[in-house]
């Protein structure tokens, strides 16, 4: 069975650490992104999420948010699923939606990626 807690690295070399995974599926941790909207250096941001409790032999689905409050006025929501291959390697697959603050309703069209 796949365990979300621990250290994860993505294709862009960003790191995510899930340090607390509670019995009810709630988790928290931190995200060290190497990709920023401003093109600046890496920053650590807090994350909070929840894991769907898997049934027998199931792979858990999960969702979490990252607040980029130290260097950007944006928030990202991730959703995904955890898998384990025949060799025991754990992999997270995710999709994300980033919302950047804009100054007016007229600019809303460009705020979500």
From TrEMBL:
Disulfide bridge partners, by residue number: 2-82
Glycoprotein in keyword set: yes
InterPro entries: Avidin (IPR005469), Avidin-like_sf (IPR036896), Avidin/str (IPR005468), Avidin/Streptavidin-rel (IPR051764)
GO MF, one example: biotin binding
TM stretches of this protein: none
Name assigned to this protein: Avidin
Tagged with keyword Magnesium: no
UniProt family annotation: Belongs to the avidin/streptavidin family.
Xref: Pfam families: Avidin (PF01382)
Subunit structure: Homotetramer.
Subcellular locations according to the entry: Secreted
Described purpose of this protein according to its UniProt entry: Forms a strong non-covalent specific complex with biotin.
Keywords associated with the record: Biotin, Disulfide bond, Glycoprotein, Secreted, Signal
Domain of life: Eukaryota
SUPFAM superfamilies: Avidin/streptavidin
GO cellular component entries: extracellular region
């Amino acid at each position: 069975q796949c365990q979300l807690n621990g250290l994860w690295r993505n294709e862009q070399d960003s790191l995510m650490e899930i340090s607390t995974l509670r019995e009810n599926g709630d988790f928290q941790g931190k995200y060290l992104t190497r990709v920023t909207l401003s093109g600046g250096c890496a920053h650590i941001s807090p994350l909070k999420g929840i894991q769907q409790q898997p049934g027998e032999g199931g792979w858990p689905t999960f969702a979490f948010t990252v607040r980029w409050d130290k260097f950007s006025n944006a928030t990202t929501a991730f959703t995904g699923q955890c898998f384990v291959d025949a060799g025991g390697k754990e992999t997270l697959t995710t999709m994300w939606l980033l919302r950047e603050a804009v100054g007016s309703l007229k600019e809303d069209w460009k705020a979500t990626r």
